[in-house]
Amino acid sequence: MRGQLSIASANADSTALKTVLCGKYGYITPAVQGSHFLGATYDYHNLDLRLRREDHEYNLRAWVQYLPGIPAPIVDSLSGRVAIRCVNKQRLPIFGALDGQSGIFASLAHGSRGLLTAPLAAMSISSHFFTNL
Q: What is the residue-wise DSSP string for 78-111?
């Protein structure tokens, strides 16, 4: 699945944000080295790795919704990044032994929640591996 995040320059008012805000309209991070990260889009049917203006506009909804009263950046001032995420239709990761004999394990399809699910998958796999030595 294609995902685009947008990078916006912080301003004097937006630097007051001290925690990630996340919800229905995506997320916005506190300023990191003078930039906020907004995102991210989900596009199952597009593998184009070029930045798209309409995706920047979509990501700006997080700023508008979560930082009311702080002027949003101009779309043309945004930079960003595009990547392809490995996901499955249920949006759940796939992990575990590939078969019972080979000792080969897999951990994939973590998608946009990989920072949460990858360590849990690793703990599960390592627990299985070390209890079956």
A: -EEEEEE----TT---EEEESSTTT--EEEE--G
pTM of the model: 0.78
Q: End-to-end CA distance of the chain: give it in Å, rounded.
A: 37
Burial of 49 (0-12, 13-18, 19+ CB in 10 A): exposed
Contact criterion met (CB below 8 Å) for 25 and 65? yes
Residue 5 DSSP SS3: strand
Antiparallel, parallel or unpaired: β 94-97 and 79-84: unpaired
Name the CA radius of gyration of the chain, rounded: 18
The candidate with the shortest Cα–Cα distance to 1, out of 46, 40, 51, is: 46
Interval 76-128: pLDDT, tens = 999 999 999 888 888 889 999 888 777 889 999 988 778 789 999 999 998 87
Surface-to-core class of residue 87, CB atoms within 10 Å of its CB (0-12 exposed, 13-18 middle, 19+ buried): buried
